[in-house]
Amino acid sequence: MSKPHILLIYTGGTIGMIKDFKTGALKNFNFDELLKHIPELRLLDCQITTQSFKTPIDSSNMKPEYWVTLAEIIEKNYHDFDGFVVLHGSDTMSYTASAMSFMLENLSKPLIFTGSQLPIGDLRTDAKENLITSIQIAAVQEKGKPKVQEVGLYFEYKLYRANRTTKINAEHFEAFASLNCPPLAESGVHLVFNDHVLLKKKGQKKLKVHKNLETGILLIKMFPGLHKETLSHLLSWKDVKGVILETFGSGNVTNEPWLTHALSEIIKKNIPVVNVTQCSGGSVTMGLYETSTQLKEIGVISGKDSTTEAALGKMMFLLGKGIKPSLFKAHFETPICGEMT
Question: What is the CATH number of domain 217-332?
């Protein structure tokens, strides 16, 4: 059997930088010279091909049009490679990786996102381990098929389902968490997969890439002291197509009438409103407390235990597909690719 062939895609971010020891400045290095910087890759039992965005993107500048570019790279190379590893800045990695899980329908090969807190050229870098193990994971096969058949995010010895992740720390190597879903795999002395967590693909459906994403979305974080006028101003945006509310605890908001009325008026215009919790872990359960009962009654959609990042990507995806308003709630509250329990 031939060795698995992995496509390594560099979009930008700290992991693709190296320090100029004369000036101390960080600069992007040529990925064609990857083996020069990480000779350990030669020990992996796979072939590696590299491809970079023409202009590397700082992850703070990441946006849906770049997601489409990435999806098109996957689409173009899908049948020529056994797995894909995407190098991405950590700040918005969960947003990009979550969106890709919806955009790549019927994905049956590993697409592993990774990055680092320190550049490859740094003495204490986490980049080498993250990159090497991500490629190793993408190359693992079982009975002639990839072990992982979904979008994952690997960081600091753990592989997570990408659309369950959130960046929780800007300084520690353990930058990401997945509090509502256990790791897909853990790397120690051995690479151990949690088989019961991995998505199981049924049949061999053809990859379908969705490139139409609706970006007219408001993401509103509730906080004590939010003014009626502030919310009214936001919701008066003429191009709004969807609203995501980050609420307290299990989906609670103030029960002052002006808030319920403002949301009710938006919903009457067939603009979906989705409720996700501000908490890193846990789930929205509307009706559990009186302060969320009214949201349920006016038709606010439950994000259940979705992350904000996943809810945003899912809303862009569903609105981009042109799902009818009468069906949107049912589609959103139904898991598509493991993004909710």
Answer: 3.40.50.40
